[in-house]
Specification:
heterodimer, A: alpha+beta, Gyrase A, domain 2, Elongation Factor Tu (Ef-tu), domain 3, six-stranded mixed sheet, 8 helices, globular, B: alpha/beta, FAD/NAD(P)-binding domain, seven-stranded mixed sheet, 18% strand
Chain lengths: 401, 509
C-alpha cells in the first residue's frame, strides 16, 4: 500500500515551514531561497556571524524541507538492505545510519540517513524526492512507504554548547545520547524525538516534532539558549561547516545517477570516497555486481580533499598535474576558505592515480580583481576530506558550558 | 548445498526446455528436467477435454520449428509423425463463399514474394542469439553489421520499401495493396494472432515479418498437424531428451531457485526437496523466473522494474468442442476442411473486436483460427466424433467482471459465431471447453496467460527481449539462464530459444 501527501496548491508554489513565522521575524537581510518546495532562509544576519555560532555556540537550523519517508512492514529490513549499500540488519532500534543508494550500474542516486524507530519501522531522510526509486525497489517486498515530509517538523541544534542548551531546556539525560543515538524527550511540555546527528561535523542534535508543536519548541530552545549564544542560521553558514567536515552535497559534489544526461557523469560510492559505506558481504543490494567489478578494476577517480595554497577559494576550478596546466585531471566541486582551520580547502574529483593522499596537484583559479580577471595556478595537496573533526563531536557525555 | 547434484537443472519441460535439455545432455552434462505438471510439453500438449475426445490444449499447429532442429533431435526416430502438412488457409465469410487464401487472389503472389524476401533477410539474425547493444565486443558489433548488410543487400528498392513499411501498421499496408476486405482480413490476421494488437496498432507489419521469418526459418512443411496432436511432438522431444541421458521428473513444481555466493546453486521443489546444480536453465516465463522463483532480492531494482513492466497480458482464448458429427462449414470444399479456417472477414471487423478488449470486454463478433484436427487424425475422437480446436480473439486477461461469469458468455458468443458459418454445429456439440488467458495461465503456468511469455512488440524484440540484461539467455545471476518463449525469438512451438540457450550455456562453460 502506498500513500503520499498531495502536492502544494498552485496558488502557493512554495510552502512555509512551521518555523516560518519565527524565521521571518529574525531575518534581517530578507534572504530566502527555495528548498524542496519550501521557502527557507539563506542568511539571517551575516554568514560570518552565523558560521561562528556553529563553531562556538549553538545554532538552530530549520530542517523541515528535508524529504522524509516512513518505511515499515515485515520486509522493511530486507527492503532497505537491498536498497542501500550498508548492512541495515546491523542497525539497532533507536540508532541512525548514514547511507547511500545506487542504481544497477553502482552509481549513487542519493545519500541520506536511516532512522531505525522500531523492529520494522524506519525513517529515511534524503535531500531529494525518491518515491519513484523507493517504489521501484519495493517490487517483491512487503513494505509500506509513505512520504511524511510535511507531517514531521525538524530543527537542527548544532554547536559546542548545544547539549548544554538542550539540558537547560529541560532535556535531562540528553547528554547520554551517543553519536547516531535516538532518544525521546519533552521540550516545554511537547514530545520530541532527538537524534544525535547533523551536517556540521560538530557536536549537535536534530529535533523532530509534530508541526503544531514547532513554534513552542523553537521558543523554548531560544529561551534556554540565550546565555549560551543561540542563534538561527541559514543555509550558507551551514554549507561552510559541511565542507569543513568533508560532507558531500547532492547536485554539488555529485549528480544523482537517475538524473544525469551525459554518460560518464554518474559517480559510484567508491569514487565519492564512501567505500566504508559499502558492505559486499551482507548479501545482494542494487549495484553490488557493478561495484564489485569497479572494486576489482580500480576506480578511475575519487572525491578527495584539497589543501590549496593562498586564501582564495577555488570555486569550480580545474585540477592539473603541474603548474603549466597541460594535463587536466579533475575539478573542484566545493571550495571555501575555512575560518576555523585557517586553510583554503576544497572537495575535488581527481583522476587515478593522482587522488592518492599526499599527491601534489595544481588548481587553476580565476580571480576577479575589480573586474579584471587574473588566472592563478595554485599548488594543492590531496588530504583527508574531514578538514575539521573536533573531538567534541564524538564525546559522550559532551562537555558542559 | 544438500540434495542430489546435477550439472544442469532445467525448470519446465516445455518444448524449449526439452530441446535445451537434450542438447546439453548430449554435450555430456548430467541434466535434470523438473516439470510442475503431470505431462511434458507445457502449452504443446494433448489432453482429454471431454470423455474420449482429446485435443492440443494450447498450440494446435506446428509450423515454426526448424526442420533442421527436428532432424538434429531425431524427432522422427522418437515417434513424431505428421498427420498433415502444408495445410491450406481458408477465410470463412458470412455473406459469400469461403475464400481460399493463396496465389489465386489478385495481387497476392507479388505481395507474398516481397514479404518473403524481407523475411528471408531477417532469418539469419532471427535464428541467432541477439547481440548486446553498446558493448565494444566484436561479436556484438558483427551481429549489428550483419543486420545492416542483410537489409542493404536487398537492393535499393527493397531496402527502401522494408524501411518504409517496417514501422507501419498492417492495416495501412494492406489498404495500399488490396481491395478485397476478405483478403485483407485474412492477411491481417497473421499479424495480430496471439498479440495485444489490432490491425491499426503500430508495429504490426513487424510482427507479421517476424512470423514470416520464423516460418522461413522453419523450412518446408508449412502449417502441419502432428499425429496425436502437439502433445505427440512433446512426447518425441521428451524421448529425445531421455535418450540423450536427461532425467525427467513430472509433478515436481519448483518453489524457488537457490542462490549461493551470488550464483545459481540449485532449486528447491514445493515439496521441500532440493537439487543442486551450478547451471539452472529456466523454461518458465521471465516474470515467473525472476520475480517468483528467484526473487527480487537477488536482483538490482532497475532490472526488477524492467521485468515488472514487461507486458505479458494474454488476449487469446482457446475453444475446444466435442462433436458427434463432422462440422459442415457452408460452401467449404472437402479438401480444405482439414486446413486452417479463419473468421476475420475484414480488417475493420478485427479492429472492432479489438476495441472491446481495450476496455476489458470481449466482442460479440470475435475472430478465430479454427482447425478440425479429426479430419486428419480421427483417433483424437471416438468413432464418428470430431473435435474443433479454435483460437478465439480477443479475450482480455483482465475481463471486466472476471472469467468465472465471463466463460459461459464467451462460449455462447463463440458458438453463435461458429453457427453462422456452420449451421447445425451447435446441435452436434456434446462437450465444450473454453480456456481463457486466466485458465491458460493456471494450466500452463504462463504469467498473464500470454503464449509468447511476453508481448512480441518492437520494445520487447530481439536485443531487448525479454529485458535488457537478460536478452542473451544469461541473467544477472551467474549460472542462471532463460530458455523459454520470453527470450528471442519468442513462442509458437519453435524450439529456437531452447537451442540458443543450450548454445549459450555451452559457450559460457
Amino acid at each position: 500500500m502506498i500513500a503520499h501527501q498531495p502536492a502544494p496548491h498552485y496558488k502557493e508554489p512554495l510552502l512555509k515551514s512551521p518555523f516560518h513565522e519565527r524565521a521571518r521575524a529574525l531575518s534581517q537581510v530578507d534572504s530566502f531561497v527555495p528548498w524542496s518546495g519550501y521557502t527557507t532562509v539563506d542568511v539571517f544576519t551575516t554568514v560570518e556571524q552565523e558560521y561562528f555560532a556553529i563553531r562556538n555556540a549553538t545554532t538552530l537550523y530549520d530542517l523541515t524541507p528535508m524529504i522524509k519517508y516512513r518505511i515499515l512492514g515485515p520486509d522493511a529490513v530486507d527492503y532497505l538492505n537491498r536498497l542501500v549499500t550498508r548492512d541495515i540488519a546491523k542497525l539497532k532500534p533507536n540508532r541512525v545510519a548514514y547511507c547511500v543508494w545506487c542504481n544497477d550500474a553502482g552509481h549513487v542516486i542519493d545519500d541520506g540517513t536511516i532512522f531505525r524507530l522500531g523492529d520494522a519501522e524506519f525513517r529515511l531522510c534524503t535531500a531529494q524526492r525518491q518515491l519513484d526509486w523507493l517504489l521501484a525497489s519495493a517490487v517483491g517486498f512487503d513494505v509500506h512507504i509513505e512520504e511524511i515530509t510535511e507531517t514531521v517538523a525538524a530543527l537542527a541544534v548544532q554547536g559546542p554548547t548545544s547539549c548544554a542548551v538542550l539540558k537547560a531546556a529541560g532535556l535531562s539525560g540528553v547528554e547520554a545520547l551517543r553519536p547516531f543515538d535516538i532518544g525521546y524527550f519533552h521540550i516545554g511540555g511537547v514530545p520530541v524525538t532527538i537524534s544525535r546527528t547533523g551536517f556540521t561535523g560538530d557536536l549537535g542534535y536534530e529535533v523532530w516534532m509534530a508541526p503544531e508543536d514547532a513554534l513552542a519548541v523553537w521558543d523554548a530552545l531560544m529561551a534556554a539558549g540565550r546565555s549560551r549564544g543561540v542563534r538561527a542560521i541559514g543555509s550558507q553558514a551551514l554549507n561552510i561547516a559541511r565542507i569543513e567536515a568533508g560532507f558531500i552535497s547532492p547536485h554539488v559534489d555529485f549528480i544523482s545517477a537517475e538524473q544525469t544526461i551525459r554518460t560518464g557523469r554518474d559517480r559510484s560510492p567508491l569514487e565519492l570516497g564512501l567505500a566504508w559505506l559499502v558492505n559486499f558481504d551482507k548479501g545482494h543490494f542494487t549495484g553490488r555486481r557493478a561495484l564489485l567489478a569497479e572494486q576489482t578494476a580500480g576506480s578511475r577517480r575519487r572525491l578527495v580533499g584539497l589543501d590549496i595554497a593562498g586564501n582564495k577559494p577555488a570555486h569550480n576550478a580545474l585540477v592539473y598535474t603541474n603548474a603549466a596546466g597541460r594535463r587536466e585531471i579533475g575539478n573542484v566541486t566545493s571550495a571555501v576558505w575555512s575560518p576555523t582551520c585557517k586553510r583554503n580547502i576544497a572537495l575535488a574529483m581527481v583522476n587515478s592515480p593522482h587522488y592518492k593522499l599526499g599527491s601534489t596537484v595544481w588548481v587553476e583559479n580565476y580571480l576577479n580583481r575589480e573586474l579584471v580577471w587574473e588566472r592563478r595556478m595554485s599548488r594543492a595537496e590531496v588530504v583527508e576530506r574531514a578538514f575539521f573533526a573536533p573531538a567534541r563531536r564524538l564525546a559522550t557525555p559532551p562537555a558542559d558550558f | 548445498m544438500e540434495g542430489q547434484r546435477f550439472d544442469v537443472i532445467v525448470i519446465g519441460a516445455g518444448h524449449n526446455g526439452l530441446v535445451c535439455a537434450t542438447l546439453l545432455a548430449r554435450s555430456g552434462r548430467s541434466v535434470l528436467v523438473l516439470e510442475a505438471g503431470m505431462r511434458v510439453g507445457g502449452a504443446a500438449t494433448t489432453r482429454e477435454f471431454a470423455p474420449g475426445f482429446r485435443v492440443s490444449a494450447g498450440a494446435h499447429l506446428l509450423h515454426l520449428m526448424p526442420a533442421q532442429l527436428q532432424r538434429e533431435l531425431g524427432l522422427e526416430g522418437h515417434g513424431l509423425r505428421l498427420a498433415g502438412s502444408r495445410l491450406p488457409t481458408t477465410a470463412l465469410l458470412a455473406e459469400a463463399a469461403p475464400l481460399a487464401i493463396g496465389p489465386g487472389a489478385a495481387g497476392y503472389a507479388e505481395y507474398q514474394i516481397r514479404m518473403a524476401r524481407y523475411a528471408a533477410a531477417l532469418v539469419p539474425l532471427f535464428a541467432r542469439i541477439p547481440p548486446r547493444l553498446g558493448t565494444s565486443d566484436w561479436s556484438d558489433r558483427l551481429a549489428l553489421l550483419r543486420l545492416a548488410w542483410q537489409i542493404r543487400r536487398l537492393g535499393r528498392t527493397d531496402m527502401r520499401e522494408l524501411l518504409r513499411i517496417g514501422g507501419m501498421n498492417i492495416y495501412d499496408l494492406l489498404e495500399e495493396r488490396f481491395t478485397s476486405p476478405a483478403l485483407q482480413g485474412a492477411l491481417a490476421f497473421d499479424a495480430i494472432l496471439g498479440t495485444n494488437f489490432g490491425p491499426r496498432s503500430p508495429g504490426t507489419v513487424l510482427t507479421l515479418l517476424y512470423r514470416l521469418a520464423a516460418e522461413a526459418n522453419a523450412g518446408a512443411t508449412g502449417l502441419a498437424q502432428p499425429l496425436g496432436g502437439l502433445g505427440a511432438l512433446s512426447e518425441s522431444l521428451a524421448k529425445a531428451a531421455s535418450a540423450a541421458g536427461a532425467k525427467l521428473m513430472l509433478s515436481a513444481p519448483v518453489a524457488r531457485i537457490l542462490v549461493a555466493d551470488d550464483r545459481a546453486a540449485g532449486v528447491e521443489l514445493e515439496s521441500g526437496e532440493r537439487f543442486s546444480a551450478a547451471t539452472v536453465v529456466s523454461n518458465a516465463d521471465p516474470k515467473t523466473t525472476f520475480l517468483r522463483l528467484l526473487g527480487a532480492r537477488h536482483l538490482d531494482a532497475g532490472f526488477v522494474r524492467r521485468v515488472d513492466h514487461l507486458r505479458a497480458r494474454g488476449l487469446a482464448a482457446k475453444l475446444h468442442l466435442a462433436l458427434d458429427a463432422a462440422p459442415r462449414f457452408e460452401g467449404l470444399a472437402a479438401e480444405r476442411e482439414s486446413g486452417r479456417l479463419l473468421i476475420a472477414p475484414s480488417m475493420q471487423h478485427i479492429e472492432h473486436a479489438y476495441n472491446h478488449a481495450k476496455y476489458g470486454e470481449f466482442s460479440d463478433h470475435p475472430i478465430m483460427e479454427i482447425t478440425v484436427p479429426t479430419h486428419l487424425d480421427p483417433a483424437l475422437a471416438p468413432p464418428g466424433g470430431h473435435i474443433v480446436s479454435a483460437i478465439v480473439q480477443y479475450a482480455p486477461y483482465a475481463l471486466k467482471n472476471g472469467w468465472e461469469s465471463g466463460r459461459p458468455a464467451f462460449l455462447e458468443t463463440a458458438l453463435a459465431c461458429l453457427e453462422r458459418h456452420a449451421p447445425g454445429l451447435r446441435r452436434s456439440v456434446i462437450g465444450a471447453e473454453v480456456l481463457s488467458p486466466v485458465d491458460l495461465e493456471r494450466e500452463f503456468r504462463m504469467h498473464g496467460g500470454h503464449w509468447h511469455h511476453g508481448e512480441l512488440a518492437f520494445d520487447q524484440f530481439w536485443t531487448v527481449r525479454p529485458v535488457p540484461g537478460a536478452a542473451q539467455h544469461r541473467t544477472p545471476v551467474a549460472g542462471l539462464y532463460l530458455c523459454g518463449a520470453g527470450c528471442h525469438p519468442g513462442g509458437g512451438v519453435m524450439g529456437v530459444a531452447g537451442r540458443n540457450a543450450a548454445r549459450q550455456v555451452l559457450h559460457g562453460a
